[in-house]
Amino acid sequence: MRTVVQQRGEASTRRMIEATRALLAEGGLGSVTVAAVARRAGTSNGSLYHRFGDRQGLLLAVQDSLLTALENEAVAVMDEAAPLEPRPAAEHAVAGALRLFASYRPVLRAFFVEGQSADAFARRNARCLHLLASHAEQLLVDRVGLTPTRAAAVYRVLFSVGAAQSLFTEEHMRGEPVARDELAAVLIRLVLP
Fold first, then answer.
1. Which residues make Cβ contacts (< 8 Å) with residue 94, sequence separation at least 6?
2. CA–CA distances in Å: residue 130 to residues 28, 38, 92, 119
3. Could you read off the pLDDT of 51-91 as tens digits, one per residue?
4. Are residues 137 and 125 in the same domain?
C-alpha cells in the first residue's frame, strides 16, 4: 500500500511531466527550463532536481513517457487493423498514423528535430522508430499482402508524410490546405497493390 507521501510524490512527478509536455508544445526544447517547469507544476526547483537530477534527466523522462505513449497508441492502431480485410486495414492504419503524427507533433518536433544531435535522445528515438516500422511493415505484409521490400518502402513514404506534417504547418505548405481524409485517400492508393 502506498503512503500519502508516496502518492503526493507521484502526483508531483506527473505534474512536472505534464508541465514539461505543455512547455514543449508551446515553445520546443528551448522553452523547458527547470524554473519554468517548477513554476508551471506548482513545485520547487529543488523538488525537480531531487526527482530528475537535472534538466536533461527531466527531458529524458518526458521523452520516454511520451514516446511510450505514442508507441502504445500506434501498436493499438495496428492491432485494430490486423483482423480487417486489406482495404479497411490500410484505411484504418493510414488514418491512425496521420492522427498520431498530428497529435504528437510537438513531441516529434522537440525530440526528433531539435534534439537529434543529443545522443541520449537519439537512442530512444531510434528504438521508437524501429518499433513503429516493424509493426507497420508487418501489418502491410500480413494484411495487405505486400512484399517485405515494398512494405518497407511504403512505410518510409507514409513516415515521410507524417514527419513533414510534424515539421510544417499547412501555412508553410504551398497552395490550398489538404484535408486529412484527402491525404489519407492518396496514401491508401499507394499502400494497396
1. 158, 184, 187, 188, 191
2. 24, 33, 21, 16
3. 999 999 999 999 999 999 999 999 999 999 999 999 999 99
4. yes
Residue 157: predicted pLDDT:
92
pTM of the model: 0.86
Same domain, yes or no: 65 and 133: yes
Domain with residue 10: its CATH number is 1.10.10
Contact call for residues 29 and 114 (beta carbons, < 8 A): yes
> Residues 115, 118, 123, CA angle at the centre, nearest 5°?
95
Among candidates 165, 163, 158, which has minimal Cα distance to 81?
Answer: 158
- Same domain for 100 and 165: yes
Identify the CATH number of the domain in which residue 126 sits: 1.10.357.10
Q: Are residues 21 and 76 in the same domain?
A: no
Q: Smallest Cα–Cα separation from 110: which of 167, 160, 162? A: 167
pLDDT at 2: 58
What is the span of the domain harbouring residue 107? 57-191
HEC letters along 35-81: HHHHHHHCCCHHHHHHHHCCHHHHHHHHHHHHHHHHHHHHHHHHHHH
